[in-house]
Design brief:
By secondary structure, the chain is α+β, with helices and mostly antiparallel strands. It has eleven helices and 13 strands. Strands 1, 2, 3, 4, 5, 6, 7, 8, 9, 10, 11, 12 and 13 form a 13-stranded mixed beta sheet that branches. The longest helix is centred in the first third of the chain and has 15 residues.
């Protein structure tokens, strides 16, 4: 068994190509992310705070993982992401994390993140393997949970997803809360298409305040605002992005993302001409499905029924835009109010994703050539 740090373009290709060996035939629900997006999330190679590793067995790549030192507040940790491992190679998986800990013996390893908690493809899927993932959500083999535990990881947080269908009515309490917000002067507006950067900054400020007490949340920074602008321009359906107001002040937002995974299916993550054609007729490839990406209300307006108002209006807007099915993805397991709101939408919990943590010395050492 050989552990190799990715330095060359050939090694990077090996890193990118491993998922094809794992998912090609055995996992029909897996949908390849765009390779260009994966490269963008990984960023530049050979930066001092980031390491990509391969594990080879008899000359074949059998496992991979990326690691990046990360500072959030007073905590410094080693985030891991882009983890993949062929079945039957649990020791290769364990060797990856032992190697990472040998470089940073005093840091906890947390993840999977790519490489921030708010980035796409978060967590390890542990329930819901018979369901297709929604756009920018992870999918992996069932054995990853076992392999990570055997490498010394423990669960630190679960993330829930909920399935929604527009033909299942919202609860009476949600409708009552929405009407209370409306009676108190709260209104809903849509995105101003001519000022997308301003709108992105407004939404980022709302979420930075609204979600600041949530476990693991990190503020939206300028680079993420730039990414949000790109999402607005090229991927979001602005008919299903809503902002709540009172007295012309923006105080809440709900963002839905069309489920473009149907557009990516069968392309192997490559930008073929077929993908470009699908993109230009992308509304035909959403299958009437959208993902509830984020909902936030300024703390000073919590308890006013604004979340219910946003949801009620989104049901109306979504119907007008042709969406009849959605997934809320994701909700922290300890976020009681949001889990209750999901249930008030008649949401059915359908998947669980898991975040893990590993401390130094929490698994036996392995001998590996590196």
């Amino acid at each position: 068994m050989e552990i190799i740090e990715v330095k060359s373009s050939k090694q990077f290709r090996d890193f990118l190509n491993l998922p094809r060996k794992i998912y090609s035939k055995s996992f029909p629900h897996y949908i390849d992310p765009l390779a260009a997006q994966v490269k963008m999330m990984i960023g530049k190679l050979n930066s001092p705070e980031k390491h990509l590793f391969l594990v080879k067995q008899d000359g074949q790549t059998v496992a991979r993982c990326g690691f990046k030192t990360h500072v959030h507040g007073s905590e410094k940790a080693l985030h891991f992401g882009f983890y993949e491992c062929l079945e039957g190679h649990q020791e290769a998986s364990q060797a990856l994390f032992q190697k990472a800990h040998s470089l940073y013996p005093d840091l906890k390893i947390k993840g999977p993140f790519h490489f921030r908690m708010e980035d796409p493809y978060i967590g390890v899927l542990v329930e819901g393997f018979d369901i297709d993932p929604y756009f920018l959500m992870a999918y992996n083999p069932p054995y990853y949970d076992e392999y990570l535990r055997k490498a010394g990881f423990v669960k630190v947080m679960d993330l829930y997803t909920y399935e929604l269908r527009r033909n299942i009515p919202l609860s009476d309490i949600l409708l009552k809360n929405a009407q209370r917000a409306r009676d108190n002067g709260y209104t809903i507006r849509l995105i101003d298409k001519k000022n997308l950067r301003k709108e992105a900054r407004t939404i980022a400020l709302i979420f930075n305040d609204a979600l600041s007490n949530n476990w693991g949340f990190e503020e939206f920074i300028d680079s993420q605002v730039d990414e949000m602008v790109l999402m607005f321009k090229y991927f979001l359906d602005l008919r299903i992005v809503a902002i709540a107001q009172k007295d012309e002040k923006d105080i809440g937002s709900l963002i839905m993302i069309p489920n473009f995974n149907h557009m990516l299916r069968g392309l192997g993550g490559k930008v073929f001409p077929k993908l470009l054609w699908r993109y230009f007729v992308r509304n035909k490839f959403t299958h009437g499905e959208a993902r509830g990406y984020a909902l936030g209300v300024l703390k000073g307006h919590h308890g006013s029924g604004i979340g219910s108002l946003l949801v009620e209006e989104m049901y109306r807007l979504g119907g007008l835009a042709g969406y009849d099915k959605a997934e809320i993805s994701w909700v922290l397991a300890n976020n009681g109010p949001m889990n209750e709101l999901a249930k008030a939408m008649s949401g059915k919990q359908n998947k669980v994703y898991r975040i893990f943590e590993k401390t130094t010395g929490s698994a036996p050492e392995l001998n590996a050539e590196h």
